[in-house]
Design goal:
With about 300 residues, the chain is of the alpha+beta class. The protein is built from six helices and 18 strands. The longest helix is centred in the first third of the chain and has 21 residues.
């Protein structure tokens, strides 16, 4: 993927032109089309190609630059990344996307000239950032400041880094399954009145009503971390998954697994019950990332009231 001599000269000339434009207008160069007749598109593809060749040879990429592009009707994250020769994880991490549906027509996105992972300093925009920070915190990063929506944000840039297979799965979410089929969502995540005391408190999961004895399935591949009884949760199970993710299943009637057992996504682990503080048969279900409860509705489709 190395550039020829003439192409390399053009690359540097265009780079200077784009940075002069940036300095004068305080905006990033605009790519109007994903086509070769667009000079910014050509510049971006040449830069990405060149920086990839440097990374593959163990060298640092050239000075990073950013372009902006407005998403069109038939664009997807993957078609944009493919046309620009840039791994989609670079676009995802730079823009703070949580999933593939984050892109919508008319949206203005930023595209970098080098593959890598971008993580903002001191803040996590979403759960994917938390996972990436946990893995990359000990690695050396390039400090860059990037402007997005009139805000200057300090980023750590990890040139050449890609999503791991588990991070990729987490982003695409193909193996999160509803733990109880055809269940009814009776209590969502967030603040609610306690059904016993009437006081407001934070509900760390969701309640999924189903007939007693209905199978409860593992929402994701993992290992049985804990099996026990709690006065509130009743019989419950905690499953440990990759990337510091845990799922919790409460108010169970019977338990079908043993401690430290490996389970697949969809494996039957228990049955719905009404043990603990419960007003009727249902599953209390939680998703925790680095021990912090997250809204399961962000990860699971099919939750209905």
């Amino acid at each position: 993927m190395c550039l020829g001599k003439n192409k390399l000269i053009i690359f540097f000339v265009l780079t200077v032109s784009l940075f002069e434009l940036y300095a004068q207008t305080e905006t990033y160069p605009v790519m109007h089309d994903l086509e070769i007749n667009d000079i910014v598109f050509n510049q971006l593809v040449s830069a990405v190609e060149y920086n990839i060749s440097l990374i593959q040879n163990g060298q640092k990429p050239e000075e990073l630059f950013i372009i902006q592009y407005t998403v069109k009707k038939n664009d997807t994250l993957f078609t944009i990344a493919s046309r620009c020769l840039i791994p989609y994880d670079a676009i995802v991490s730079l823009n703070g996307f949580r999933d593939t549906v984050s892109l919508t027509p008319g949206m203005l996105i930023l595209i970098p000239s080098s593959p890598g992972i971008f993580l903002p300093h001191d803040i996590n925009r979403n759960d994917l950032d938390i996972l990436l920070h946990a893995r990359l915190i000990s690695k050396q990063a390039q400090k860059v400041t990037i402007r997005n929506q009139n805000k200057k944000i300090a980023f750590d840039f990890f040139p050449g880094e890609r999503f791991t297979s588990t991070e990729r799965v987490f982003f695409l979410k193909p193996d999160f399954v509803l733990p109880v089929e055809k269940a009814k969502l009776t209590s969502p995540f967030g603040m609610r009145k306690d059904p016993f005391s009437g006081e407001l408190h934070h509900h760390n999961g969701v309640d999924l009503a189903a007939p007693e004895g209905t199978p409860v399935r593992s929402a994701r591949t993992g290992t049985i971390k804990y099996i026990g009884f709690d006065t509130v949760l009743g019989n419950y199970i905690i499953i440990s998954h990759d990337n510091s993710i845990e799922t919790v299943y409460g108010h169970l009637k019977s338990i079908k697994v043993r401690l430290n057992q490996k389970v697949n996504s969809g494996t039957i682990i228990a049955t719905v019950g009404t043990t603990g503080r419960s007003t009727g048969p249902h599953l209390h279900f939680e998703i925790r990332i680095l021990s912090t409860a997250k809204n399961p509705a962000l990860f699971l489709q099919g939750l209905s009231q």
